[in-house]
Amino acid sequence: MKLRAATSKDYDALGQVMFRAIHEGESPYTKAQRLAWLPKANSGAAWSERLSQQYVVLVERRNDILGFMSVFPYGYIDLAFILASARRQGVFGQLLGAVTDRALQHHLPRLTTHASLMAQPAFSRYGFEIVKHEIVERAGDRLQRAEMVKHL
Question: Which pTM was predicted?
Answer without folding.
Answer: 0.95
